[in-house]
Amino acid sequence: MVNENIVKIAKARRLARKTAKFSLESVYSFLNGVGLYANRTGETFFWILKGQIPLKSTMSQMVEMGWRSFPIILLTSFFTGMVLALQVGTSTANLFNEPVYVGTILGFSLVLELGPVLTAVVVAGRVGAAITAEIGTMKVTEQLDALYTLGTNPVKYLAVPRFVSCILMLPLLTVFANIIGIYGGLIVTVHSWDVSPAVYWGDVLDFMEIGTFLHGFIKSFFFAFIIVSIACHKGFSTEGGAEGVGKATTSSVMTSLVLVLVSDYFLSALLMALGID
Amino acid sequence: MIKVQGLCKQFGLKRVLRDVNLEVKDGETIVIIGQSGTGKSILLKNIVGLIKPTSGSIFIDNVDITKCSKTELRESQKKMGYVFQESALFDSLTIEENVAFGLRTLTDLDEDEIKKRVMQCLDMVGLKNVEGLKPSELSGGMKKRAGLARAIAYQPKNIFYDEPTTGLDPIMTDVISDLIISLRKHLKITSIVVTHDMKSAYKIADRIIMLYKGEVVFNGTPEETRRTDNAVVRQFVEGSSRGPIETDRTFREME
Q1: Residue A260, φ and ψ in degrees, nearest 5
Q2: Which chain A residues are closer than 8 Å to B104 by Cβ?
Q3: B82 part of contact set with chain A, CB < 8 Å
Q4: C-beta of residue A267 within 8 angstroms of C-beta of residue A224
Q5: What is the DSSP code (8-state) at residue B67?
Q6: DSSP secondary structure code for residue B15 in this structure
Q7: What's the pTM value of the predicted model, to 2 decimals?
Q8: Which of A142, A145, A152 faces B105 most closely, judged by CB atoms?
């Protein structure tokens, strides 16, 4: 009986020691990751501010991120606009016996929130994943080391063009997403609710100010920064072959999405406090 | 001249290199042999500056690259070429662009000269009509030779080869060995070659160094290597599973 108790106590101590060690390692690993992220992002900004931007590579990244993401942005925002018009029209018809302010509600929803956030989600899934997978594969196949031996800084060569392209293209895609979404809403409003286009456009534009547009536009710059900085960092930190690339890519997309959604609240609150809404 | 003094490298608690000392004179070719996982590639990566040593110094032409400024390190890099174990060709670029990469970043040659040099280098490693292909379209051996062409294209003073003949057929292995000898003979290139291929090692080496458990256990000419009484070296060059080198216990037990 005494022996059994001693064994149980020893097991409990071992478990406690392991748990404490695991927690410490997790904290250390997290802090190390944050440090590396800050270091790489700082280095990227250093090269950008120094004007050392590889133009050819930046242009091809802009085409890849902007032009090749456009069809999926077109589809998602068009249908988002359509479903918004359907839902708003139905709700207002139930409440007021007729669909009112469909354009106003739809315009505000899209320009303030849905346009920037949906575009960021699509770009995080498409562009962020591609960036991490590409840089991660280069890391595990020693291509980053090869760049270094050929006198090229991997951050300058790979991260800088992607940073510049993403920060320019995501806000542009957001503007297109807003416009396409509003047109999607127009089709449903005109055909399903028999509201004339003039009334719809009046609803959309009457209450919209430059601050409304700026609110979403400014947020999209921050979302672009989050997506591209996380994607590059996860790529450069990839370890362990094909499995490592898969894990890094999943982690990149998930981290970007969570940070975009969390930061959306705080950015919105900050912009509202500054009177940009 | 390349000089390594008291080099130690530790990953966490694992000590990979322990007090490694070696000196390679200009134009000399040394071959590093040793079991897989004994720290040969780590030693090469320390010398080119890809990995920072835990302690010790590495001098490239009297510049300590472990302590020098970034500018000095970049100047040293221009003198170094590296042939990677798995080629490490850039997937997104064609073979021509891969070979030209170092010429564009490290030299002032114009595009015509670059094209001419690329063709010369591809010809030297026995690759023809592959300039427009992507690395994924080449066989393993062809990739290896393209990687070699990339490393020699900008004519560095020192070239580091990480298993340059692994995966090549015997004839191509001999071609690569001849190429390393020819680079030393005509361009006075200093080479450090990591290999398991003893036939190639005997052919190209001025000196052979053996690493065992992260330490240099032998340093001698190919002739001295053939005649040595060092049991560790004997077991390795003879490729025997019996001897002082610890092999996998499970396999022994199965015997």
Answers
A1: -65, -45
A2: none
A3: yes
A4: no
A5: T
A6: E
A7: 0.87
A8: A152
